[in-house]
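Hi P.,

Sorry for the delay on this. The queue was packed all week, but I finally got your sequence through. Input first:
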Amino acid sequence: MADIENLWGDLSELPDMDLPKHILNAQKEYLESSLKGLVLADVKQINDSGRIKISFTVFPENNEDMAQELLSVTHGGGIYPAIVKCSVEPVGEDRAEDDESFKRVVHRILSSKEAKHTVNKFRLIAIS
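Then the structure:
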């Protein structure tokens, strides 16, 4: 067989971006580290019919049965746009067009009074 030339061109020019799952995993690590493992998080991905759903839940250490979802994100193979659903008050849905807008939406949810109340409640349960 003859040598066939590279028909892809320069693949090193492909742009990098932060995937929603990686962003949420980083937030999991920040939470667990900041609260010294008293409150844990879980990032679960479900692939269904060409769509990806990622759920971000929190729970007190040693009590995963109390897990509460703070948000979920759904996207297709194109990654963006992604639909972010807030599971704490005020419950709602946002559309993120890229990783920067996704980070803004996630920041708004995780830094909300309601999300922090949930985390603090679980922290108190863990230390009791």
